[in-house]
UniProtKB/TrEMBL annotation:
EC numbers for this chain: 2.3.-.-
CDD domains attached to this UniProt entry: NAT_SF (cd04301)
N-acetyltransferase domain boundaries: 1-147
Protein name: GNAT family N-acetyltransferase
Native source organism of the sequence: Lysobacter korlensis
Amino acid sequence: MQIRPARPEDADAVFGLLGQLAASFDPDRAAFDRTFADLFQAAGAQTSTTTETLLLVVEDDEGVVRGYALTSIVPLLYTNGPAAQIHELVIDEAARGQDLGSQLVHAIEQECLSRGVRQLTVASRRAAGFYDRLGYHSTAEYLKRTF
């Protein structure tokens, strides 16, 4: 098992996993391709005062992508430094129960620490028990408006 930054050639694998995550939206390949490409283009243009995107994948021993996580890091005023939020995290149904999700979260935490992140949040009602076991606790109720 290896956790690494995503590469453009991971698009098909990540799109396949997206179908296991999406509950509010049906995955649209054309929209996905645009956004996936934008993530890599934006990565080269980031400075310390902009939003940073962290897209990690977890591969099994055969090099098959079994999960991914998308996290944003933004400068916030009230946290006295950058804050991060895990927006998407999914492990392939066939690979669940192998501790890959926990290892992916720990890798995100290490990346955040190396970037001076002061706070890491995740909005997840369906996976609250998973995050509770990793030491996260509920502090707010998220409200959303979908367009």
